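Notebook, student rotation project (T.W.).
Task set for the rotation: take a protein with a known small-molecule partner, predict the structure of the complex, and write up what can be learned from the model alone. Partner molecule chosen: nicotinamide-adenine-dinucleotide. Sequence and SMILES entered below by T.W., checked by me.
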Amino acid sequence: MSPALLLIVLCVLQVAVVDLNEILGEQCKAQLDAEFGEGKSTFIQCDVTHGDALRDAFQRTVDQFGQLDIAINNAGINNEKNWEKTIQVNLTSVIKGTYLALEHMSKEYGKIGGTIINVSSMAAFLHSPHQPVYTATKHGVIGFTRAIADASLQGDYGVRINVLCPAFVDTPLLHTVEDEDNMGKFVKFKDDFKRSMNKFGVLQPSLIAEGMMRLIMDNSLNGAVMKITCSKGIHFHTYEPMSA
Ligand SMILES: NC(=O)c1ccc[n+]([C@@H]2O[C@H](COP(=O)([O-])OP(=O)(O)OC[C@H]3O[C@@H](n4cnc5c(N)ncnc54)[C@H](O)[C@@H]3O)[C@@H](O)[C@H]2O)c1
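Predicted structure of the complex:
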């Protein structure tokens, strides 16, 4: 499991773990406590699709830790049956999370700057008949992030905003792909999906953490689209320059 949202205060290395799942959220906090000591992290239970609760999670973090430096919008579900929910979690909440993070970081709001990472997927590049709406949301996250990163640059927000696109990763989400409750009628394409998994391989979450760290640390990156795959590791997507 990787939490839905991470809100990090850099100068004092404090982190708010935000997730719907209380048990997993508390486990994550306990691991952080064990490694970094008590008082460095907090867990906030929150459904990121509930706008007021999400706003409150950001406010509570800033009230507790004093400021916000890094926000990682990571929530994602794989539900083609309830596809409207998939859009709410994977795309709408990423947009809301970005706007809320900007309220707490952007020079536009009198703040001191920061970094936002939005999590997309290689599904945005290698589409599958098994996940049409998931694929659409992950395209949306890339388009939104690139455009808002340009707005940040041109508007002098002082906030770097980048997007991370992992290929298959060994997490609970990957185990939902054979479940009719999640995939609905598209479950019949699961063998096609599993063939892709065998062909492209499955990443370990530690490599995704390494990619995140690069996006956080490299001050030259804004609007970057980082891809992480088994064959090429951490690398960046390049786009053709726009022409008339
Ligand atoms: N696992 C993969 O193969 C893979 C590949 C590419 C991209 N991704 C993306 O990585 C991100 C993390 O996924 P993961 O693989 O760690 O999945 P995961 O299911 O292990 O973790 C997702 C977390 O999001 C939380 N969550 C779901 N809905 C929520 C909501 N409404 N409000 C708050 N929290 C909510 C869940 O409780 C869970 O802790 C997602 O955006 C996913 O689309 C995953």
